[in-house]
Automatic annotation (TrEMBL):
Family named by the database record: Belongs to the ABC transporter superfamily.
Name of this chain's protein: ABC-type dipeptide/oligopeptide/nickel transport system, ATPase component
InterPro entries registered for this protein in UniProt: AAA+_ATPase, ABC_Ni/Peptide_Import, ABC_transporter-like_ATP-bd, ABC_transporter-like_CS, P-loop_NTPase
Source organism of the structure: Acetitomaculum ruminis DSM 5522
Gene Ontology cellular-component annotations: plasma membrane
GO MF: ATP binding; ATP hydrolysis activity
Pfam families found in the cross-reference section: ABC_tran (PF00005)
Ranges where the ABC transporter domain occurs: 8-255
Membrane topology: Peripheral membrane protein
């Protein structure tokens, strides 16, 4: 297999929780620089567990029980879960479904943004301020002064998600993990945010893995699509191949349900 430009490789990875749930079973995939992969699948199929494991953010009771995750040549396996700590927040960042989860609710946005940058890179205060300004422009947020002096609860869901994306991409990560980044938003805002993510990924040379329930979003944003069911990756391949020539029965069902939904309008 061509190994060039591969930034993340997951080999036969299995992840279990303390309650005996085998959430991810023997999953493999590889991601190239600047590539965008969507992981789709029904609720409980293991999507969040997989990307949390990549980020080194599994809950206390979750464990990688087999296989390995290799990021930029460094291996995270069941024996060395510490290995990714130094990468988290710098080389790899994450956007959550609700940016409220990642932005401190009791601090003003400006303060949280500065802290996030200070802890990830040594920069002069004036440069940090310039960078924040540029990043807010990048996610098309007007009225920057007001936003920076607001608490998260004072912003709309779409604004918070834009701030979350600005924070997550301001450190120039090589990999951005996005867990249902738009599902808490209404449909028009979802489309704007997904478009923005796609643009930012390409502009900043950042690879993206996005978890979504929405096959339409996956089809729009992705170079490759992975489909999960009951912890297994039942399909993984180039976007067009998966959309137009799905191999697994489950992918066919997912695609049919999208078409039926569209037809009924
Ligand atoms: N902290 C946990 N402790 C025990 N079991 C868990 C935990 N988190 C998830 N699970 C279980 O692991 C399986 C996979 O869950 P996961 O959240 O990864 O699915 P998902 O595909 O992301 O679902 P959704 O689309 O609903 O977010 C489920 O059976 C779930 O109940």
């Amino acid at each position: 297999m061509e190994e060039k430009n591969i930034i993340l490789k997951i080999n036969n990875c299995s992840i279990s929780y303390g309650n005996g749930v085998d959430a991810v079973k023997n999953v493999s995939l590889s991601l190239r620089e600047r590539e965008i992969i969507s992981i789709v699948g029904e609720s409980g199929s293991g999507k969040t567990t997989l990307i949390r494991a990549i980020m080194g953010l599994l809950p206390e009771n979750g464990r990688i029980t087999g296989g390995e995750i290799i990021f930029d040549g460094k291996t995270l396996s069941k024996d060395n879960e510490e290995a990714f700590n130094s990468l988290r927040g710098k080389e790899m960042t994450m956007i959550f479904q609700d940016a409220g989860e990642s932005i401190d609710p009791i601090r003003k946005i400006g303060y949280s943004f500065k802290e996030a940058l200070k802890s990830s890179q040594k920069m002069k205060k004036s440069l940090i301020e310039k960078l924040i300004d540029k990043m807010l422009d990048g996610v098309r947020l007007p009225d920057k002064k007001r936003i920076l002096s607001s608490y998260p609860f004072e912003l709309s869901g779409g604004m918070k998600q834009r701030v979350g994306i600005a924070m997550a991409t301001s450190v120039n990560p090589r990999l951005l993990l996005a867990d249902e980044p738009t599902s808490a938003l209404d449909v028009t805002i979802q489309a704007q945010i997904v478009k923005l993510l796609k643009q930012l990924g390409k502009e900043k040379n950042c690879a993206i893995i996005m978890v979504t329930h929405n096959m339409g979003i996956a089809s729009y944003i992705s170079d490759k699509i992975g489909v999960m069911k009951d912890g297994e990756m039942v399909e993984f391949g180039e976007r067009d191949r998966v959309i137009y020539h799905p191999q697994s029965q489950y992918t066919k069902e997912l695609l049919n349900s999208v078409i039926r939904f569209g037809d009924s309008r």
